Amino acid sequence: MKPGSAKGDHYASIMFRAIINYDNKSSKNLEKSLIVKTMPFVDGPKKEMLKKMNIFDIEIKMYSEVIPKFQKMLKEAGDDTELGGKCFYAATEPQDTLIFEDLTKKNYKTVSNWGGSWDVGKKAIEKLAKWHAMSLKMVSDGDQSLQTFTNGYADDTIREVPMFKYGFSDFVEMMKKKPEFEKYAPKFEKLLKEDPIRKSQTLFKAFVNGDKTNFFVLNHGDFHIKNLMFTEKENGNVDDVLLVDFQLCIWGPAVIDLIYTLYMMINEDDRINRRNEIIHYYFEVFTETLNKLKFSGEYPKLTDLYKDFITYKDFELIMFTINLPFINAVKENPNFDISQIMHGVETRKPFYESESYISFVKKMLPIFLHNGYLD
User: What pLDDT is attached to residue 46?
Assistant: First the structure.
């Protein structure tokens, strides 16, 4: 047994790599490498939060029911895309456990840092668009099972995690100390009084609340750069990407995953300069996939997607003010303890003073202002 992931790669699970030696009827001394995934078993705030979020039940259902259906749909449509690795075993008793094939044996690897890569990100966006299209097709054809995925960050437990409880106010505190942010600080102070975490959660509760959202799909729900693995061709170009960690899948507006893509999958320059290109490329693959699947319902429009970005702008502001400083800090120092960042009270404040984060804030604030995000 060895650690199955690097420090800082994953928060919600404990990962082991198990090297199994075995014999069968025809051969002896065979070997197989497996990835064993389990819930945190040390008592504390992290264990309690994840237990309430029901993440293992979600992932077991994804691997046992949903992903096989998606793979069958793609195959029948003449598309040989693989979405993720194989899950060999799943159980909730006596301990939450999932056992997967070890994708490193097929030359898949994780992205080494949180900075993001356009080549990897573009491949991931392709998989995401196909994933979303298949979910819309399934529900349109009468399979309502995907609409039972309504947990994840919609649970109010997340609001009590210190990172989310105090992160927005930490951001405002930083702004008030910087003369260059003088005209923006009052706008964010006003947003703070309106409880931005609660407002951002309306995105994750959109289906349950009966919102008239334009673009409902099954979201991955935690679509970041560490939740995929990729292979390279001999020339160094990205060959394939596989998605992992389906613990927070949720039926809701597609902008959940797209906002994740912009802030936790793509690097800073592409986040700004390629934003509309990313959204359009996603929509293009999404529509092409619906055509392959012979979708007969009403096709969403690109303008519908942009409307949802505005409707749920509060979630993007949370990504900007809370998640991004954390991602930036782990990128600069991979040895940071993610649990301490999320549950500690004073740990995060220095992250808001990072030169790289301040630089990005300067670029983004005028964009938010001009797009009406700060009204």
Answer: 57
